[in-house]
Amino acid sequence: MKKLIECVPNFSEGVNMSVINQITDQIEHVEGVKLLDVDPGKATNRTVVTFVGTPDEVVEAAFRAIKKAAEIIDMSKHKGEHPRMGATDVCPFVPVSNISMEETVEYARKLAKRVGEELNIPVYCYENAAFDEKRRNLAFCRSGEYEGLKEKLSKPEWKPDFGKPVFNEKAGATAIGARNFLVAYNFNLNTTSTRRANAIAFDVREAGRVKREGNPVTGKIIKDENGEPVRIPGTLKKTKAIGWFIKEYGIAQISMNLTDINITPIHIAFDEVCARAQEKGIRVTGSELVGLVPLHAMLDAGKHYLKKQKRSLGVSEEEIIKIAVKSLGLDDLKPFNPKEKIIEYLLDDETKAPLINMTLKEFSDETASESPAPGGGSIAAFMGSLGISLATMVANLSSHKRGWDDRWEEFSVWAEKGQTLKQKLLAMVDEDTNAFNEIMSAFGLPKSNDKEKAFRKDAIERATKNAIEVPFKVMQLAYESLEIIKAMAETGNPNSVTDAGVGALAASAAVSGAFLNVKINAAGLEDKNFVEHIINEANIIEKDTKKIESEILKIVNNKI
After folding, report:
1. Distances from the Cα of 423 to the Cα of 316, 321, 399, 412, 428, angstroms
2. Which of 58, 391, 462, 510 would bridge with 485, disulfide CB 3.0–4.6 Å?
3. Where in the chain is the domain with CATH 3.30.70.670?
4. Rounded to two decimals, what is the model's pTM?
């Protein structure tokens, strides 16, 4: 699974599109990142850019953009309504998927170090990347703005985290940080009353509402000993919310910002707003996601509602997202297209997995063609995916079998494990063909002198080792799937026991077929210790597979 980071740099130019395009061109030319949005503002004279990608590539793209901004933006001539202190004013990193905040902080600091040392721009690290608790607050880091920067840098307490405390008149200073993903989320109400929408918003938002004497709306505000209003906190942490009327739709909405979806996920916010609205005789008819959302947020929501229905969670990703969309009413006002709203889907490149994106007929035709790939390794991986798919089907059928309602969770766990293995085996279908192509490319390298010969030999060895490891991984995954297949033969819906049997045959064939690829590729490897170890391991897997296959088929035939 790819690690993905979102980066949202703010550049101090919102009018001259030539300048803005030169900066975004730097981002678009880095492979492994995708530019998602460019939002210039004339009044603020500021452009917010959003891009996403793998961590090292995000660091590189951000560095190039910051460098270009420093070259073509002159802060000594900049004017704008928004607070700012540099050509690149802020550059936050946001963890999107398969990466922790701690890891994201390290990448943010890696960028900050490069910017400070290579570009001579003073850098302050803020939010989660801050070294000093005071500097967590962006407004604190930016205090004095560009106009006060020269004097600020002369003070020891304002020594930058990276770079020298020297005023860079043209580029100013930059704040680089790491923060949580912010989701802008609106709730549609069956009312036109902004006041009632606000009342619900105040019930749920973290800041809540001010406490009043007597009437909660018109009563005198109660203050503490320091003269500050006493507040009644709302029910949802890490949220900001307000009510408004949307003329376009003719309804009132609650507009909410979820500043940490790990603490308050979208489905928890939705359920809570629904409950509070109902207390006031109002119904939430649906909701609206503004901008993009990480995949895990949608999957978490879908699984939440499947659990409420006591349904198996081990269904396809597409089905889980469909449940989330319908449960949250995301298609209430207009169609919701996951491919346009989910960050990871925007990054999908089907050309990198051409085989698994084919129809069954296309895949069969391609296999039967005169091309040597896909070959036996890809077919073995696909057989393995079909084997575990059958077991997953049995688990899902068992989870809602009449009379087995109290066992839905048991089978849901098996189905989820099956879905995970299915996805891994499907990925190996293309991976095996890629490994074959790498070997062919290595053999095609030039060999006209000793240096080229040595490089070619090393490339062939590395490619061959990979071509062994890929089918070996298929063996491991297919063998792992037998545990689920056997459990479904033993305890699953008896009407589907033969499906488990066919699954066992497919998994066994995947193991033996992949082993053939391991052996033929191992014959050409010079690292004999590696070959001996992997062949020994593969022999054990195949032997154990045949044993379990026999046990499963015995169970199946006895039940038949």
Report:
1. 10, 16, 21, 17, 9
2. 391
3. 183-347
4. 0.82
Q: What is the topology classification, in CATH, of domain 183-347?
A: Alpha-Beta Plaits (3.30.70)
Contact assessment for residue 291 and residue 240, using Cβ atoms and an 8 Å cutoff: no
| Secondary-structure breakdown of the chain: helix, strand, coil percentages, each rounded to the nearest 5 | 55, 15, 30
User: pLDDT of the chain along its 560 residues, tens only?
Assistant: 689 999 999 999 999 999 999 999 999 999 989 999 898 888 889 999 999 999 999 999 999 999 999 999 999 999 888 889 999 999 999 999 899 999 999 999 999 999 999 999 999 999 999 999 999 988 899 999 999 999 999 999 999 999 999 999 999 999 999 998 888 899 999 999 999 999 999 999 999 988 887 877 778 888 888 888 888 899 999 999 999 998 888 999 999 989 899 999 999 999 999 999 999 999 999 999 987 899 999 999 999 999 999 999 999 999 999 999 999 999 999 899 999 889 888 877 665 778 999 999 999 999 999 988 899 999 999 999 999 999 999 999 999 899 999 999 999 999 999 999 999 999 999 999 999 999 999 999 999 999 999 999 999 999 999 999 999 999 999 999 999 999 999 999 999 999 999 999 999 999 999 999 999 999 988 899 999 999 999 999 999 999 999 999 999 999 99
471 HSE (CA, 13 A, CB side): 32
CATH 3.40.50.300 fits 4-178, yes or no: no
The set of residues, in sequence order, having a beta carbon less than 8 Å from that of 106 and lying 6+ positions away, is none
Which of 1.10.3370.10, 3.40.50.10540, 1.10.3210.10, 1.20.120.680 would CATH assign to domain 350-559? 1.20.120.680
H or E, element range at 168: none
Catalytic residues, by residue number, are 82, 432
Q: Where are the alpha helices (DSSP H) in 29-175?
A: 55-72, 101-118, 138-141, 149-153
Here the tokens at position 413 are: 């766990």
Q: Report the alpha-carbon distance of residue 221 to residue 240 in Å, rounded.
A: 21
